[in-house]
Amino acid sequence: MKRLSLAAAVSGLILGASAFSTQAVADQKFITIGTGGQTGVYFVVGQSVCRMVNRNSDEHGVRCNAPSTGGSVANVNGMKSGELDMGVVQSDVHYRAFNGVGNFEEDGAWGEMRSLFTMHGEPLTVVARANAGITEFADLKGKRVNIGNPGSGQRNTMDVVMNALGWTVNDFALASQLDAAEQAAALSDNNIDAMIYVVGHPNGSIQEATTTIDARLVPVTGPEIDQLVETYSYYTHSIIPGGLYRGNDEDVPTFGVAATFVSHAGVDEDTVYHTVKAVFDNFDRFKRLHPAFANLTEESMISDGLTAPLHPGAKRYYVERGWIQE
Ligand code: GLU
User: Fold this and answer.
1) Least confident of 39-43, 105-109, 115-119, 304-308
2) Of 99, 121, 180, 182, whose CB neighbour count within 10 A is largest?
């Protein structure tokens, strides 16, 4: 009798425990962050945010993963379709997607986008084989150029630049559409003369290209570029510092955008709150996760380049920290 009641008590305990863990699982929220190619910086942004979030999953119940994707445009489309909750998106793509203008006119405005914060700067970066006879952007005409996969931010920005110059894909001997992570090998294998990447520095892809072969960063300047910077507030003149990559000791002038971190409006307030909290409560640790994050400041991260309104969960945290007014 005694034994029986003990067994009953034990089974009661087990039942209770499993009911409890079912409850805990039900409360867990899984978020998926869209990034970019594995040798770029977006992938590290997503992985780093998840690392910070997942440190305290037991407390807040949010679990995060950040798979590799085709880049900015793929991330916008993934959030629209509900496959992704959050994503890293170039500030120019962000603006055009939110407002439904330029190369997003056909898609229409996506008013459901919400801003969390801005990350690092991303200069339009052209890398050419040293012996390809490419010393300025105009030299790309007639060459084999990887203009990027259609889901990428660089492809979207390249379309704008080509448009400004009056170029089409027919102006290149070859306009390939390789993914970001495939470009460095294509350049090294002499399948293309130049690759184009809108990306933070330093990054693995350009390190790969410049260490495998002699390759040079090419300036992106001229009246059409000045005009783009003048017309669109999300474009700025920028410099890729010399000395980051083998054989490239001089500063290289170009223009660029910023990487922004955004979500779908439908992601609940607590989840976004815990995501931004995880980043900014551990900010020094976070910044050490990639050299492109070294110069980030809280102040510019919550103000620069954010077209879409702040998500209420992000706003709650920034108000709590006294960074913005209610
Ligand atoms: N800016 C690129 C894009 O939007 C991605 C850069 C990166 O992966 O760091 O596709």
Assistant:
1) 304-308
2) 180
Residue of the CA atom closest to atom 3 of ligand 1: 153
CA angle 170–207–306, rounded 5-degree value: 70
5 has a pLDDT exceeding 90: no
Q: Which of 213, 238, 258 is the last residue of a domain?
A: 258
Q: Measured from the CA of 35, which atom of ligand 1 is nearest?
A: 8
CA of 220 to the centre of ligand 1 (A): 18
Measured between alpha carbons, how far is residue 211 from residues 125, 197, 240 in Å?
16, 17, 17
- Ligand 1 lined by 37 (C-beta under 6 Å): yes
CA–CA distance, 272 with 269 (Å, rounded to integer): 5
Q: What was the pLDDT predicted at 26? A: 52
Domain that holds residue 160: 122-258
For residue 254, report the distance from its CA to the centre of ligand 1, in Å: 16
Helices 153-165 and 91-99 sit at what angle, rounded to 10 degrees? 80
Domain harbouring 227, CATH code: 3.40.190.10
Of 152, 156, 234, the residue with max ligand 1 atoms within 8 A of its CB, to mutate for a pocket test, comes to 152
Instruction: Quote the CA–CA distance of 174 and 185 in Å, as a whole number.
Output: 16
